[in-house]
Amino acid sequence: MTRSPAGSVSDRPFAHLAEHLTALRRAARLPQRALADTANISRGAVQRAESGTAAPSPTVLDAYLRACGAGPASTARALLLRSRGRAAHRDKLRELRAPAPAFIHDKRDLALALAEAYERAGAPSLGDARLAPGRKPLPRTTAWRIVNRKGLPATTEQLVTFLTACGIRPAEQRPYLDAYQRITTDRGTRPTPPRTQRIARRIHRTPLAYGGTDTEVSYELTATTAALARLVPARVLEEAFTTALQQYADREAHRNGTTPPDWITTTHILDRLAATPFIARAPDHANDSGADLVLHTSDGSTMIIQAKRHSRPTRPDALAPTPAPTDRAA
């Protein structure tokens, strides 16, 4: 005669499930060995399921119930007791404190409510297609983010799949769906952060080569540059500007196949900036007038810089050998 585990089972997380399964086996008049053979599972799996110390896997539990001839009510109770046992064993519901589905206001509330639904369902395997028949299982990464409150389902379909896998009936899913629609809609209408404003290059009405001026076009700093200029100290900003200006002149001269003149140096630029404020702009390559750099002064005048031609100093030609002095005859 097979014995059930001795002693009280009230202090074990799956004690109520073990009592229910033992009662079903005895009602079917099956000893543990015979039930194991009928269910095609090991006797150890039967003993662990009736011990109350661990939850039987969904496959073992399903085979156990079918071997005992359990009806729909007994099967539903066994699944409920298993979920309650896993929730008690994991002991995470106390720290969640999620609001009721009808009182979800923001993303945090919805994340807590979904995590609580998962824990109350006994932390089911969300990749098991049997938990949501006819629906595509959740991706593993998506399921992990939802369970750990790192994110929400990407679509309404994923939300329905998650709730169905957690044992929430369609009639009870409506508050979750309404909150999800409201939160995702609000999130989509939030103002986007300011992005870098691109300055479109403008074509001169009259090319500079034909006597046109460049003062008719206005230029401004981009949003990112202006924000950085307010944060960086003036001394550092001045040094960065002059260094970048010299690098730009080097690059434009290299593009033209020349080298920058010697007077385009940081020292020279600083001297000019100390005397007159300039506003620098890049040349218009769409209508190239030949200028490599344009500087606007505060008095309205314009300085155009173009690296036309410059060659590095070369070594002087070798001098012809001087004949050695000789004594002349008197």
Automatic annotation (TrEMBL):
<feature type="compositionally biased region" description="Low complexity">
    <location>
        <begin position="316"/>
        <end position="330"/>
    </location>
</feature>
<feature type="domain" description="HTH cro/C1-type">
    <location>
        <begin position="21"/>
        <end position="76"/>
    </location>
</feature>
<feature type="region of interest" description="Disordered">
    <location>
        <begin position="307"/>
        <end position="330"/>
    </location>
</feature>
<dbReference type="Pfam" id="PF13560">
    <property type="entry name" value="HTH_31"/>
</dbReference>
<dbReference type="InterPro" id="IPR001387">
    <property type="entry name" value="Cro/C1-type_HTH"/>
</dbReference>
<dbReference type="InterPro" id="IPR010982">
    <property type="entry name" value="Lambda_DNA-bd_dom_sf"/>
</dbReference>
<protein>
    <submittedName>
        <fullName>XRE family transcriptional regulator</fullName>
    </submittedName>
</protein>
<dbReference type="GO" id="GO:0003677">
    <property type="term" value="F:DNA binding"/>
</dbReference>
